[in-house]
Amino acid sequence: MNSKGKALIVLLCLTTICVSWRGYMSFSLPQDERPCACERCLSEDDPWFMKHFNKSVEPFLSANYNISEDVFNWWKCLQREKGNFRTFRETVDRLFLTVPPSPEVLESSPDRCRTCAVVGNSGNLMKSHYGPLIDFHDVIIRMNAGHTEGYEADVGTRTTHRVMYPESSVDLDNTTHLVLAPFKILDLEWLTKALTTGFKGRSYAPVKSKIKSNMDLVMVLNPAFMRYVHDTWLEKKGSYPSTGFLALVLALHMCDEVSVFGYGADSDGNWSHYWEKLRNKKLKTGGHSGNTEYRMIQELNERQKLKFYTGF
Fold first, then answer.
1. How many CB atoms lie within 10 A of CB 288?
2. In the chain, N or C: fewer CB atoms in 10 Å?
């Protein structure tokens, strides 16, 4: 091959490389301009996702954050709260004399990839062998009374955050964040007293008088965040979101990569807990729209905004 032919081949190769590189650069931001160090970041452009995901909504209450009376009026209807807005604010003020005035949250950064595992309580976790995969994540969110002891192979051993309310509360170790999902003023009062002098009140179900938890790691979900999940993510289906779905959307706000385990019915179509033998096979999801929540999780999985491990 003569020199002109070789030069032409080299020129064609360089042109191909340049065109390919320009195409790559048009779809991939430089690392220092990306919001995280993951292979994919949740906040990367997707009109459908950005229509639902509102980064400006504060997931947690803090001493310096005041919800609006409009939000309070929505929230007070969840469990027929009779107290007024002033009582709510006074109760919140007392709570933040006991727990940290602002939550401890790992912020996003171009040089880190924050991974979350959200572990539900579905019976479909049985024999899944997801335990090691769950424990591999940075943040591991469980909810209510979800067990680990005796189920380690399927659900893992670690818990960094546990979302619960008084009627579903359990004692925690010194390294786990207690994330309260408050549905009434009584829940806020319970948290203050259960961490200190002991709670003596009554609710619709028995509640623990005292709870073991590291007070420095306590966090409280924001009623405005709860409303946002209900209105935007669930399109106002159901009376209010389940604790599990609140935890899932919370993970989308706390992490760059989210994996979801233990949601939905088991392989027989029953809504059951993996640590219990189901007695009532007609059990439904109460005031929550279980089907709507499940379809939203499937949609997020299909759009690669999270990874959904079904368990069967």
1. 20
2. N
DSSP characters over 135-152 = HTSSEEEEETT---TT-H
Residues forming the annotated binding site? 79, 121, 144, 204, 240, 244, 264, 273, 288
Structure tokens at 119: 């572990």
Cβ(255)–Cβ(139) below 8 Å: yes
**Domains present along the chain, CATH in parentheses:** 44-61+115-183+213-309 (3.90.1480.20)
Q: What length is written for the chain? A: 312
Residues 6+ apart with CB under 8 A from 57: 222, 224, 225, 228, 253
Report the C-alpha gap between 170 and 275 in whole angstroms: 15
First-to-last alpha carbon distance for the chain, in angstroms, is: 60
Out of 240, 263, 274, 309, pick the active-site residue: 240
Is-contact 253 59, C-beta < 8 A?
Answer: yes
Residues in the annotated binding site for substrate: 79, 121, 144, 204, 240, 244, 264, 273, 288
pLDDT, tens only, 86-140: 999 999 999 999 999 999 898 888 999 999 999 999 988 999 999 999 999 999 9
User: Catalytic site residue 288?
Assistant: yes
Annotated active-site residue in 52, 161, 177, 288:
288
**Residues 6 or more apart whose Cβ sits within 8 Å of residue 82:** none
Write down the residue that tokens 């070789």 correspond to.
Answer: 6
